[in-house]
Amino acid sequence: MAQRTSSSHRAAPEHTHPDDVSVQTALAALADPVRITLVRELAGSQEWSRSCGSFDVPVGKAALSHHFVVLRGAGLVEQRDEGPKRVNRLRRAEFEARFPGLLDLVLRDEPTA
User: Fold this and answer.
1) 7/48 Cα distance (integer angstroms)
2) What CATH number is associated with residue 67?
3) What is the mean pLDDT of each run of 10 residues along the chain (113 residues)?
């Protein structure tokens, strides 16, 4: 009997460079509270130290995956696979070069009323 090999290979995620992103796409990606939480948590973490499942957000796995697709498409996040985990980094320098000051505005604490 032949042994089956694991078919858990995932396709590498596609990444959009911030230079190829419109301001409308960037703003739309940052308009969602879950995505802002993801960006803020990434901004406070070492690069490549956060796996997708390590974020404290109130959504399921499928929704979380969708949010990361949107963030990658907006040039905000880069992901790579490390063993069974997909780890993330905020493309802060690249995004800042494309949209100076925008990420700093998003990362500010929300003002109290």
Assistant:
1) 24
2) 1.10.10.10
3) 46 88 96 96 96 95 96 96 95 96 87 52
Report the candidate in 35, 94, 46 with the shortest Cα–Cα distance to residue 68.
Answer: 35
CA 105 to CA 111: how far, in whole Å?
11
What's the pLDDT score for residue 48? 95
Name the domain count of the chain. Answer: 1
Range of the domain at 103: 18-107
Tokens 């911030």, residue?
Answer: 18
Q: 11 lies in a domain?
A: no
Look at residue 10 in the predicted model and tell me its pLDDT: 66
Residue 30 lies in a domain: yes
